[in-house]
Amino acid sequence: MQAPQYPTLDQVWAWLGEIEDPEIPVISIVDLGIVRAVRWEDGGDSAECVVTITPTYSGCPATHVIAQSVVQTLKGHGVPSVRLETRIAPPWTTDWMSDEGKRKLRDYGIAPPLGLAATQSIAIGDIGRGPAPFLVQAPAGLACPRCDSSDIKLTSQFGSTPCKALYRCSSCLEPFDYFKCH
Amino acid sequence: MLDDKFDYLLRLGDNALVLSQRLSEWVGKGPALEEDMALANTALDLIGQARLWLAYACEVEGAGRTEDQLAFMRDAQEFKNLLLVEQPNSGSGDGGGGGYADTLMRQYLFDSWHLLLLDGLTRSADERMAGIAEKAKKEVTYHLRRSTDLLVRLGDGTEESHRRMQAALDDLWMYTGEMFTADEVDQVLESQGVAENVAALRLTWLEQVGRTLTAATLVMPSPDAWMQKGGKHGRHTEHMGFLLADMQFLQRAYPGQQW
C-alpha cells in the first residue's frame, strides 16, 4: 500500500502564516508567536496534524476565533485531520513576535512592543520602593508610529484590546495604540 | 488529599471569577471611557484566569464537571472566594466611600496580595499550577501597576477624592485579614510544596501596602484590627447571593444553554 502524501510541515507553517489575527488583521498568528509547534501524528489510517497554540492573554476573546481559523484553514487546504493543543507554559510573551510582525504593526499605526519582556520583569521585593511606588510610566523610547515624535502622553493603560495601551501624540495630535511589552 | 487540592483551586478560581463579575458590572457605566475599558480588560484577564484554575479543579475532582458548571451551578456556600472580592462596587459601609473609590480600593488591596500569592505559586511543586500562576502573574503585575497608580493619584488628589479613598480603605480593611489566614487546606498543600504559605506573605504585604498608602497620603488602619473571615469556607457576606443571582440567572433558568 502506498503511503498518502501529506503536506510538508513547512507548507503547513506557510498556510498558518496566512491566518490573520482577528483583532489586528495586518499581522498573522505566526508573526504574533501564538503558534508554537506543528507536527504530524500517526493516526492509524490517516495522519493527524497537531498544532500547538499558546494563547496571548488569559481572557483574550480572540483565542477561540483563532482556534477555529486554524482548523478551517488547514482543512480547506485538504489536511484531513487537525487537532489543536493549548500550551500555557511558558506563557506567551511579545518577545516571540517576529520582526516582520513588528514592522507590519508600525505600518498599520500600532507602536510595536519595545524591548524584551524577559529583561523587564520586576523583582517582587521592589514593588512600592522608592519615591514613585510602582507607577505607570511610558516605556523609554516609545514614539508615535505616524510622525515618530517622542512627545507622547498615556491616555489609557488599556486600549481597544487587552494587549494594547492607548497613547496620544502631542506633536501630530493623533491617538495611537501601543502593543504592550508583555 | 485530592479534596484539598480541589478546594485550593476553587479558592484561586473563585477569587478571579467573583472579582471579574464585579468589575463587569461597570461595563458601559465607567466614570470615563478609559476607565470603562480598563475595568473590562481587567475583568477579562480575571475571567480567563478563573477558567484556567476551575478547569484544573474539574480535572482534579474527576467527577466530569466543567468549569462552566462550577461557575454557574454552585450555590454561595460552595464558593471559596475571599469576602473582599464580593464586596459591591459602591461600597457597603456608611463611611461615604461611594462608588469608584470602593472599586479601586478593593482592586488595589486584592492586586497587591494576588501578585505576591501568584509569585509564590510560580514555584509550586505542581507544574500545572506553576504554569497558570506564571501566566496570571504577568497580567496581575499590570493590574497592580494600574491600581497603585490610581490609588496614589486619588489618595493624593483633591480633598474630596482623598476623603473617599480613605473611607473606602477604612470600610474594606476588615476583609484583608483572611487573605493571610492559613487553614488546614493551606497547610496540607504547603507541606507538599504545592501552595504558598499565605501567613508568611503578610509582613511583605503590610510593608508594600504601607509604603504605597503613605505615597497616597492615606492612613493605614491597624493591622491588628478585628477582621472578618469565612469566605474560604463558604461563609459569605449578604452580597454574595445577589451577585450569584445576577451571574447565574441564565444557566439556572436555561441549564446548558449556549451562545
What descriptors fit this protein?
heterodimer, A: about 180 residues, alpha/beta, four-stranded mixed sheet, three-stranded mixed sheet, 7 strands, B: about 260 residues, mainly alpha, Ferritin, 10 helices, globular
Protein described:
The complex is a heterodimer of chains A (about 180) and B (about 260). By secondary structure, chain A is α/β, with parallel strands linked by helices. Chain A is built from 3 helices and 7 strands, in the order H-E-E-H-E-H-E-E-E-E. In chain A, the strands form 2 sheets. Chain A has a 4-stranded mixed β-sheet. The model of chain A has no long low-confidence stretch (mean pLDDT about 90). Among the domains of chain A are: about 80 residues, GMP Synthetase, Chain A, domain 3; about 50 residues, no CATH class. With about 260 residues, chain B is an all-alpha fold. Chain B is about 65% helix and about 0% strand. The longest helix of chain B has 29 residues. The N and C termini of chain B lie far apart (about 35 Å). At the A-B interface, loops of A face helix 2, helix 5, helix 6 and helix 9 of B.
Summary, kept brief:
The complex is a heterodimer of chains A (182) and B (259). Chain A is α/β, with parallel strands linked by helices and 182 residues long. Chain A has helices at 9-16, 62-76, 99-108; strands at residues 35-43, 46-53, 82-86, 110-111, 152-156, 164-169, 175-179.
Q: In DSSP terms, counting alpha (H) and pi (I) runs of 4 or more, how many helices of chain A?
A: 3
CATH class of chain B: Mainly Alpha
Beta-strand level of the residues of chain B, as a percent range? under 5%
**Helicity range of chain B:** 55-70%
The chain pair with the largest interface is: A-B, 35 and 44 residues
Oligomer: heterodimer
